[in-house]
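ok posting inputs for the S-adenosylmethionine job
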Amino acid sequence: MTENQSSLSEIFDELNTEFSKTENLVRVVLSGRRRNMQTATDRVDIRPVRIKDELSVQVSFSDGRQMTTKNYAPGEYDFISALKSGFANILLEKLDGSISLRITKKGEPLVHRAQGNFEQDLSHDRSKNRLLDSADAFLKEVGISDASGSVKPSKQDKYRQVEEFLRILSPALTSAIEAGHIDKPSKEKPLTIVDLGCGHAYLTFAAHQYLWAEGIPVRVVGIDVRTSSRDRNNEIARKLNIEKTIEFRAEEISETTLDFADVAIALHACDTATDDAIAWAINCQAKLALIAPCCHHDIQAQMHEAPEPWSILTRNGIMKERLGDLITDALRMQILKLRGYRVEAIEFVGGEHTPRNLMIRAVRTGAPADSIEKKRYEEMLALWKVKPALASLING
Ligand SMILES: C[S@@+](CC[C@H](N)C(=O)[O-])C[C@H]1O[C@@H](n2cnc3c(N)ncnc32)[C@H](O)[C@@H]1O
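and the output
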């Protein structure tokens, strides 16, 4: 193992040379973003594949929700441009070792080289399997699958939502761990997740089952104000024999005594319960937050007077409502940003109680926001004469 402080362009050249030896390559992952740089996708996964006896390079571009895959002839993919495009973490594995590069906030390269034996998987069509087997015992217990392990027709949407949630959670977690924002989970120090407003806990159980199946030690807590949810969910956990690593509590989000989790999720928690959940994440310094807001009333109820010329929208009830939703979520995101989170809005399929399909994905980097961001936030409040509920819930 060697650590080395070569210049960034020398390391890019070294990586590019290794990349060009397709027959030796195992996989490459580009993830995370360099300070003040914007990559076209969240993550790029590259591996050699064999198609009709010819070696190709398969490149998968992921935006955290959808993945697009393209095959290139060896030498065709512009890897050096990808390296320079703004990713902060680059991992290259080859048959006899690996090179990992992390580019710091100051733009300095931290390189780690290790020797080892890596195996190539050249199969072309690695099946786009479901992340969870529909026969998984938990899916039967929560009522998504029937006794034979098939998804019930009435629960297809829920199953799709569970899958989509895992497709968002999994790369977000991997990136946060690779970038050092979340410690690598171990048996002694498992990853901790809280689901705030967990309801029937489809997604809570899904996260637990999926991560254990992936070999990631995890402890999950589901919180919901309803005692009936707590009792039902704890009973399911007992039946599945997982009650040591998943637990449900009947508590108000704003009053829970839980004060730590690496990951906070809140999916379609009603109205300002979403604000309670974001406030919990900020106050308890959750490293990753995945928040899909539900119904919004807070800002809408305060939008008495639209700054002109916005009345051309707000004079229409449905448009005023949608604009109110967007302003609420934009202000929530801006508050997260001002508190040291890197924030994005991505698409997430709606739950059974809401057509809303926006998810806020926030990673705590601790980087201070530029002063212009505070100014923007304050100007937005002044322009619309509103005060977001979330602002009053945050400590300090
Ligand atoms: C629409 S359900 C969503 C359930 C689950 N997250 C899902 O996506 O399937 C919202 C849940 O949030 C719970 N809830 C609402 N406000 C809450 C609060 N202030 N504290 C705790 N739970 C709350 C409700 O009891 C309900 O179970």
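notes: The two ends are 44 Å apart (CA to CA). Residues 197-200, 202-203, 223-226, 229, 252-253, 267-270, 273, 276, 294, 351, 353 surround S-adenosylmethionine (CB under 6 Å).
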